[in-house]
Amino acid sequence: MTKSQTWKGNTGGGFLGQQGLIALFRLTGLRSLYFVMALVVPFYMLFSRKTYRAMYRFFRVRLGYSGWKSFISTYKNHFAFGQVILDRFAIFAGRKNLFEVEIIDEDFFYRLTSDSKGFIIAGSHAGNFEIAGYLLRPEGKVINALIYSGETETVRRNRAKALGGNNVRIIPIADDMSHLFAAHAALQKGEAVSMSCDRSLGSSKVVTCDFFNGKADFPVGAFILSTHFAVEVAAIFVMKESNRKYRIHIKSLTGAATPEDTPAENPTRREQAERYTRLFAKELEAIVRQYPMQWFNYHEFWKD
Domain tally for the chain? Predict the structure, then answer.
C-alpha cells in the first residue's frame, strides 16, 4: 500500500459536536438521528471526494454494479457508516439496552473465552466490530484490544469506560511498537488479543491476497502471533441487521481448510501465518458479499 493509500483519520465532529451528540441521545431516540443522518450524507459525499471515489469504485469495479446502482450504493454505504457511528455514541450515552445481539456459533466463542489458553480475535472494518466489545461480556477472559490511538479525547474516554466494564482492556497502537510487547504478555497470561486484520497502516509485514477479483495486501502480524504462541484464531464480523439488532459471525481460521488452500505438510510458522491471512481475506470477502453496504474501508484498498 502506498503512502497515499494508507488510512488516516478519526471520528469527526470535534469535541463539542461529539459531546453534544452524547447529550442529544439522552433526549431523543435512534430513529430521529438516523433521519438527520440521511439528510447529511449527500453533503458529506460531496465534500469528501476521496471516500466517495473509493466506495464508488468498489461497487463499480469490484462488484460490477452499473454506474447508477454504484452511486446509490455509495450513498447507502455512507448512511450505514453514519448509523454505526451513531450506535456507538448511543452506547456512550448509556443506551446500551437499545441493541440486541445474536451470535452465530455461540458455542465456539464461549469455548474460547472459557479456555485457560489465550486466542486471537481477527477483526475488520466490515460492519461494527467495536460494538461487540460494548455489548458482550466474556466472563473469565480478559480481551486486550489493539486500537488506533489517534482518536479524539471524547471517543477515547467513553470507549475506555464502555469497554472496561466488559473485561476488555485497551492497548493503544504506538509508533514504538510497544503494543506488540503488550500483546505478547497478554497471550502468555492466557488472555485474548483482538486486532484489526484488514489495514496494514504502512507495515511491510503483509501478504498479498486474492480479494474481489484483485490483489490486496493484508497484515500478517496477528497470524504470526497466533503461530508463535500456538493459539486459535477467530475471525469475528459484527454486522448490523436492523436499527436495533446486530449479528455476530464467528469463523475459526485455525480449523479452516478448503480444497484451494490445503495446508502444506509440516509448514513453517511463517507459512502457516500466511495461510491464515489468506483464509481471513477469503472470509472477509464472503461476509462483505453478504453485506456489501457495510464495507467501511474508505481508501484505495487494492494494489491494481
Answer: 2
